[in-house]
Amino acid sequence: MEEPAAGSSRAWGVRLKGPGMQALVLLLWTGALLGSGSCQNAGPEEGSPAPDTVGAPVEEEDPFFKVPVNKLAAAVSNFGYDLYRVRSSESPTANVLLSPLSVATALSALSLGAEQRTESSLHRALYYDLISNPDLHGTYKELLAAVTAPQKNLKSASRIIFEKKLRIKASFVAPLEKSYGTRPRILTGNSRLDLQEVNNWVQAQTKGKVARSTRELPGEISILLLGVAYFKGQWVTKFDSRKTSLEDFHLDEERTVKVPMMSDPKAVLRYGLDSDLNCKIAQLPLTGSMSIIFFLPLKVTQNLTMIEESLTSEFIHDIDRELKTVQAVLTVPKLKLSYEGELTKSVQELKLQSLFDSPDFSKITGKPIKLTQVEHRIGFEWNEDGGSATSSPGPRLTFPLDYHLNQPFIFVLRDTDTGALLFIGKILDPRST
């Protein structure tokens, strides 16, 4: 299943069958080939309608997406994949790290104050126009509670900051606090004090894990959206730190750098080979019902764009069902990344330019206001830490399998319970911070 591009179908939350669909082919440890649920050669499942004679795809809603919180998670995650693609195209030669959920949360919260025209723009960007849910914001509260539960190790928060002396309607503040657990902030006009207050809020929300910013707040703010997040992964099976060593990471065919590589000669992971995307896919479980899915191109020189264009909630969900458990020789670079900066231009590219020009936020205030800036501050890391010291018994191998993340790759951090995209990264050089 491919991400709907401009002018193409935006249908999601369904599995499509019929000729012309992309084949997800997985190489199993037995050596057999398996097609995914969206494989073009897949026959109809028991109880499902067969394709008609003209070969038009037949929609079949996946039971997973019938759960309201999962369907909402899929919607905002598809926004996240869109945002990631824009950021990646803007930074083709640099690492990209995003926690799209925090940005989606800020935009969703802002939509509480939007009148119909502006609300429609926001809902389309967030894929809300494709779901029927009379209590969107109540369901969002449920989603936030699920993904930020203590066992998840995820800190994520969003905030709406308004220009100084703005009079805000209580009818906006009350539902904002009820569904999103946050209150808007009105600037004082003193740039030093305002920056200090924002930094204190970020520190409180992330338990001090995201560094204080030294960047001054813009002088002319009408509405500023701030999304922050921090995550430190805890593997279900921890790595032995004695086996971590400096190894080569191939930046391209000619350049290599030495980075700390964690290794496990008998790692149990879930694995598949996507022959269309020319990449090896692996999934490692994390504590708290979370997992990381890695996309590793077969060649170090391979462009990552084709993989990036395929990323949707439905595609990742299909992968999660089709990967097979194997035992492998695994190496993973230790990672500690952070990002602080603007996503304003990226958000504008998602057909949201109208928010910055002449939006209607009359549910917030009687004064004309508009979005002026979107800020993102995040931290992400994993090392050897994890739960158990030993892997559970894996399948017997009929051939040796190696999975070495020693060249540029993409990773997706996903909440298994809801399917929500929490972090996504393009790692071209693990040394970058």
TrEMBL record:
Family annotation (CDD domains): serpinF1_PEDF
Domain Serpin: 81-430
Residues covered by region (Disordered): 39-58
Primary residence: secreted
Swiss-Prot/TrEMBL keywords: Glycoprotein, Secreted, Signal
Keyword Aminoacyl-tRNA synthetase: no
Secretion signal span: 1-39
Protein name per the record: Serpin family F member 1
Organism encoding this protein: Sus scrofa (Pig)
